Structure formats: C-alpha cells, structure tokens
Amino acid sequence: MRKLFLPGLIVVTAVLLIARLFYLQILDDSFKIKSDNNAIKIVYDYPERGYIYDRNGELLVANQPSYDIMVIPKEMKDLDTLEFCTILNITKEEFIKKIQKAIVYSPRLPSVFLPQLNKNEYAAFQEKIRKYEGFYIQKRSLRDYQVEVGANVFGYITQVNDAIIAKHPYYKSGDLIGMQGVEQTYEEVLRGVKGVKYRQRDRFNKDIGPYKEGIYDTIAVQGKDITLSLDIELQKYGEALMKNKRGGIVAIEPSTGEILALVTAPSYDPALLVGRERSKNYTALYNDSIAMPLFDRGLLAEYPPGSPFKILTALVGLQEGVIDEKTQFGCSHGFSYGRGSFMKCHCGGGMRDLNVGIYKSCNAYFGNVYKLTIDKYQKPRYGMNAWSGHMKSFGLGHFMGYDLPPGRKGHIPTSKYYDRWYPNGGWRSTTTISNSIGQGEVLMTPMQLANMMATVANEGYYYTPHIIKKIKGQQIDKKFRTKHVTTIDKQYFKPVINGLFDVYNFGTADGLRVEGIEICGKTGTAENFTKINGKRVQLKDHSVFVAFAPRINPKIAIAVLVENGYWGSRWAGPISSLMIEKYIKKDTITRPDLERRMLEGSLKDEYDKVINGFYFEPKDKKIEVKENNKGNETSDTPKEDEKEKSQKNNANIKTTTTTDKKKKAETR
Questions:
Q1: Which residue, 63, 112, 235, 416, is the most exposed by fewest CB within 10 angstroms?
Q2: Where's it found, cell-wise (predicted)?
Q3: Does domain 232-285+296-612 have CATH number 3.10.110.10?
Q4: What tens digit of pLDDT does each residue of 181-231 get?
C-alpha cells in the first residue's frame, strides 16, 4: 500500500493540473477578455452616486448628467483637427498635449480626452462624432448641489490620478472619486458599483453585439443614499452670521454626538468645484493664502481656548479634592504667583467661590485651583500627569475619531513636554500657571470645545462626534454609538453647570439672554500671537464662546470662535445665542437687534491691518511691518493632497509659544 501511495499522489496531482489548465484555456474566457484583445471592447456603465440628505430629510446633494469625450489613440484615423478643436473650443496645442497623455497611459485603452462637457457642448460634438474615429462619449453624473453652503462638509468629487489608480485597481483613468468631507469618508457607500459590458467587434471595427451573449456583463449598482446629522437651516444661518469674519462654529447634539452644524469662515459655494471650471476655481481658492477658504477652521485650527477652559480647571479641582463649591480665594484684580509674576483679572476683585468664580470669570480663582491641583502631589510632574489624564478623558490632546477626513489633536501638555523644555528640572505649578485659564501650552480645536460642552451637558460622558445619521440599508459605525465616560464623577458637574447658567444671569453674558431658553455658557478671550518675518507679535484677541441649552435635557452644545474678535461677548457670544435660539425655536428670533448686528457686522478692517503691514499690541501701539504676511508662494497647479500642509503653515492661528511661560494673561 505504501508503495502505491506516492505514484498515486503524483497521478492525481497531474490529473488535477491538466483539468485546471483545460478549464482555463478552453472553457473559461474570463482571462481572455481581460487582455488587450482588439476584437473586444470594454464599456463601463457608471451608476449615479448616492443622494445626500440633512437630518430633516431635505435634499442637499443630487446628480446631474455629464459627458466625457474618451479616446483610444490606436483607433484614431485622420481627422480635421481644426474643426475638431473649434467644436470643443480648445487649441491645437491642447489637442496634441491631450493625445500624447492618452498614448502614455495606453495606446489601446480608453482614457479621458476632455471631461465634463455641458449639454450644449455635448450636442455639438454628438452631431460630428461619426467623423472622428477613436473617440466616443462616456456618460457620467456630476454632483448637483441644492444648497450654497456646507462645502467643507460635503467635499467634492474629482478625477482619479495615477497614484489612486495604482493603489485602488477598482478605478480606471477618468473615473471620479470623492475628496474631502463626506464624499471622501463615505466614498465606497456613495459611489455604488460600476457595470461592465463586453462588446464584440468585427474586422472592420464595427460593433456586432455583446461578447458571449453578455454572460460576463455586470449591471451597475447605484450608490446608497445617506442622511447627515446636519441641520441645513442651522448651517445656513451660521454661515450667514459668520460673513465677513474668520473662524468656526461647531454645534453638537449632546445625547447622540451628532453634528448639527459645522461652519468654517470664510467658505465657498460647493458648486464652484463642479464642471470644467473646477480646476481653475480650485486653484484660485487654494492660492488664497490670506482668507484660506479651503482650510476648515472648525476641525483644523488649533487655538488657545481661553476662559472656557476654566470649566475643566474647576472640574479637575473638584475631582482631586483640592476645592469644594464653597472654597473661596481672594482676588486683588489678579493673581500673584511669584516674585514679579502677576496674572491680571477683570472680575472686579474680592472673595470668590466656585459659582462666582465661573460667572465672573476670575483668573485668580482658577489660578489658585490649578496650583493646588498640581501641588497636591509630591512632585510637579506627578500632578501634571494627573491633570493631563483628566483633560484627555474629555477627548482633548488626541484625534477624536469623527467621520470627516481632516483633523488636529490640539495640545494638552504632560510632564514629558516640560521636561524637554527644562531638562535640568526647575519647573513647577507656577511655571505652567497660564494653563489654568486656557492659555499657556493648551490648544484646542472648535470641535473639541463643542465636544467639551456636550460632555458637561451630559454630566460626564460623550459620544464621538459624527456627521452621519443614517445610511440606507446599513447601520452607522459602532464607535459612534459607544459612550465615553470621563474621569470626573457626575456629582461635580452640577455646581459647575449652575455657575455656567449664572454666566447668563449675572456674569459676562448677561446681555445675551434669550427669552424662554435657559442657556449655560462661558465667554472667552484668547490671546492671539503669530509670527511675522520671524518676529512674535500680538494681534487682536480671539473671541470665544461655548454654551449648551436648555439647562435641563440639553438639545444643543455649541462652540464659536471668531478670529481677532476682541472679547467673548462681542462676537462669539451673540452668535452662540442666536444659533441656539434658531435651533430650538426654529423660525423665531427674539433678539433682532443682536441678529442685525451680527449679520451686518464685519471684521474685514481688522484682518486688513496685517495684510497692509500693520498690527496692534495690547496698548494699541501701531507697529509697521516691512513685508506682508502672505505665507509661501504656491504654484499655479497645486497638488490637492498638499493643500492642508501648505495652508496650515500659512494660517494665522498659532497663538502661544512655550518660551513665555510667565506672561501676563488677560482673559474675560
């Protein structure tokens, strides 16, 4: 038996190999039709992309027909180049360049000669197409935006490049792909599956029908519709309020983590990136290194949070047991924390407990709380790590995992960070005291600020912010339904929330109350530093405001940051109150005076000061700058995947440095 085993195994293996070869070469034509066989033409049937709706069912993004002229260089015959170029309104040089590019891609395979013809161009070319062998028309669909807002949320679609094709074999030359926003995140859901048809041709290159009666053909599958958590009316209102201003607005539903509004200012009409003018329009937007409309400030801009950060300072102090809600500290118009070191305060001075400290925004109170928190531990590094751990439990200092492509971590310093700056030791709580009021080395994005307020509204937990609400036929990602619990016990949120409510009753936002809505909020004024010609200079402060409402069973949490907006209650605060009322009351605005001032108000003159070569220090000392702060030059044809890095380098948003640990901070 053993003698027969080996010969038998060899015989069986040989039979299997012969059978497989027979099947592949005689019975199965799938490999044959995928080769460059001139007798078979592959035609793709492109499905419509899925539609995009807002949370209330309003259609935001649909589709419109588009026509691409395709070329197969090897099949081209002699043609009237002048007539051809005249019909398509291109030059002979452009014609030659496009043909050469197609030949480089493949002489035998189709590639896009001219994309995205409109109906009139298509009709003119269709009449003459019989004269131009080697050319044919491929029908596709482009996006048709039903609204003029939300460009940063939607993203756009563009042709794939060679790098994408190499990485994703599904795509062929001329295919479209989603870039940025939900178009990129949910590309595989929205794009559907393209159909493939194999057409047989005779020796005269005429179509004689489907190959093998169409047994290898596949049907196109339309993309799935998606519903966003966005409230488009709130988004429209936010973009209108931010006209002629720079900054971001993020609004979140606390109970779910759904993003209600994501505003970046300035923005642009998403329709600009559709059609044959897309490339030209994109280049113009990209090269605007001053206003940076392609830079999503809500997700990418990292600012010092200013006084809203005092909310976390208080919560950590309560959790660490260094204060309770009755603990008092004296304020002498500031906080003296060392020889010659004084942090100014505008609360008016006097004894401050937790509630008054919050609604008066007392720097001295929170400076003391922070100092006690760090000094509670045997060594400052232990205290700093404990403090940092609490902060990170709120989603700070790392990527949050939301479902939009861009993002920044912000910055929450740890002991290792300060050890690098002070390698011989010597740093302590007073060295880092500016962290207590949201200055120092702390940086947050508007998204993180809004999520912080959603967490406070929930009394200690949050859901990862997300823009998707529903995908037709499937569930959204589980991570968006997972609760994240902070390191702060629930019992400590109540007294802080009471203080935030009194900000509107007795404090820095008492002029921003909305009738019938109990709002809890916090004003902020974040110092604004930038570098001009290598010199660190101070510009007008950023206006910051965070809030949630109603106080009981909150429906919305919001963060607003207006660059160079002076102080919190001047711009960011009114915009927050109006956004909250718009969302909760829908069509009713009870503060038309406030609304008019925000809609008509402009900070253009403030931004022009830097462009024109001037900036202002805190005492309004006018300083002339020799060169404009215009950032680096960019090419006429920038690579889209490099825009984020370039715009980040040019952005006027970095506002603090680590070499000025003991600066005199003024926040309100």
A1: 416
A2: Cell membrane; Membrane
A3: no
A4: 999 999 999 999 988 888 776 666 666 777 777 788 888 888 999 999 999
